[in-house]
Amino acid sequence: MSKKYEIIKNGTDDYTLKYKDKEFNFKTELKIMAKMQNANKKARTKMVMDLTKQGISMKDLTIEKKENGKTYLDNSNKVEIEKAYIDDETTNVFSEICEEKFGMDLTTLVLDIDLKEDEMEQFATELIQALTGKTPS
What is the spatial distance between Cα 127 and Cα 36, in angstroms, rounded to a whole number? Predict the structure, then answer.
C-alpha cells in the first residue's frame, strides 16, 4: 500500500507536504522546536493546577505499600495521569502548528489527507520530524 502523502525535503530547513492535488511548503523554525519542548512543562503545570483544584497533591497519587518490613512506592497512577496530560498538550500544540503552517488544525489535515487511524501515528511522527528539522537527509 502506498502512502497517501509525501513529505519532501527540499533543502536544509525547507520541506513540502504533498497529498492529493495539494502542496504546502514549510520551513523548520526554532520556535516550533521550542513550542514542542515546552508542551511537557505546560502539561505538568496544568496537571498540578487541576489536581490542586480538586484537593489532590502529587504525593496523593503515590501508593505506599509495606511488605516484609520494606516500603514500596507505586507511582503508576501519577505516571498515567502525567502521560495523559502530556499527550493532550502535545496534540494541542501540534494542532496549533498545523493551523499556522497549513491553514487547518491537525484533525482537519488528517481528514483532508484521508488517513486511517493506523496511518496517523506515522504521519504525525514524520511531520514533527520535518517541522523540527530532525529528518534523515
Answer: 12
Report whether 23 contacts 30 (CB < 8 A): no
Q: Could you say which DSSP state residue 18 is in?
A: E
For the chain (length 137 residues), average pLDDT per consecutive 10? 87 93 92 88 96 94 92 94 95 93 94 93 90 71
Answer yes or no: is 86 within a domain: yes
Question: Is residue 11 a contact partner of residue 132, using CB atoms and an 8 Å limit?
Answer: no
| H-run or E-run covering 6 | strand 5-11
- Domain residue limits at 64: 5-131
Domain count across the chain: 1
Q: Report helix angle 30-53 to 117-131, nearest 10.
A: 120
